[in-house]
Specification:
This protein has 346 residues and is an alpha/beta fold. 39% of the residues lie in helices and 16% in strands. The protein has two domains: 25-131 and 258-310, D-Maltodextrin-Binding Protein, domain 2; 132-255 and 324-340, D-Maltodextrin-Binding Protein, domain 2 (3-Layer(aba) Sandwich), CATH 3.40.190.10. Strands 1, 2, 3, 4, 5, 6, 7, 8, 9 and 10 form a ten-stranded mixed sheet that branches. Helix 7 packs parallel to helix 8.
Length: 346
Amino acid sequence: MLSRRAFWGCCIFSAVMVFGCVPKPAGEVVVYSALDREFAAPILSAFHRETDKQITPVPKYDVESTKTIGLVNRILAEQEAPVCDLFWNNEILHTVRLQKKGLLQPHDWKVGSDWPPSMQASDKTWCGFAARGRVLIVNTDLLPDESEWPNSVSELADPKWKDRCAIARPLFGTTATHAAILDVSMGTEAAAEFFKKVAANAYVLSGNKQVALGVAGGQMAWGLTDTDDAIIERDAGMPVAIVFPDQQPGQPGALRIPNTLAILKNAPHPVAAAKLADYLMQAKTEDRLAMGLSAQIPVSKEAEVRPHVLPDRPVRWMEVDFESAADRWEGLAPQLEVIFTSVDEL
């Protein structure tokens, strides 16, 4: 007859074999965060202190320009047995891709009726907040006359700026999202021609940060980047100006790309994930991100902090359909890879 210790050992072994692993503590909520650790970690810690000390966020971060792709690939690989409870993406395209694959759980997001429709999933599986703007960063030493500054994203294809402007390779992050939006707004054929002209005209760099650094260092006169990368250079005293593009009549407006939150379908800790999601989707979270070095732009009208990256005059934002853009991505990505890997980086 088995001893008591041996009996319980067999039981535990059998449970592990059946369930695959010992369940994680119910008080944990696993967060996959594409937002940089320096910005996300203090906010997640504040949730534990201020709201529910019984719930401990366990963040998982990835690194470098492919961090969103890396986290999304982990979610896809784990879809049969999810590890992630809450996905905090610092952009939106790949969040919508997860939505399209049926991997996200609908949630009653606590936002007002005036929340922009483009910042909410049609099936309530994700919600957007705390945006970054897509802007032009201009070297004011190379272009001292403001009347000569570019004012539209379309100027990336203008031959007068050949080898004087820059763009990040549009295969990852916000530049990929921007490319998908252009594919929708311009139409596939017109967008493909535009991308080819841009690839032939502009320096193609590895990321938005590299664009901002290149312009700040005088390697090119201007480039397309994100507000968080541009404001760092301006705050450091570099000779740069930030232009919110396409503000003139007949132009589409500047694109803003939000952070997104989404609860995973069959998440191990759905109740804790919902509590954390509700905490993060508050105006005070946007205020914290607006005050930070990245100067992210609040979506909520209840937010009190106006980030210093914004110009004095109101910005007109581009009307977008992120879900339609995500539908285009699978077909667009291979085309962009061909167009933008056939050029040499600076």
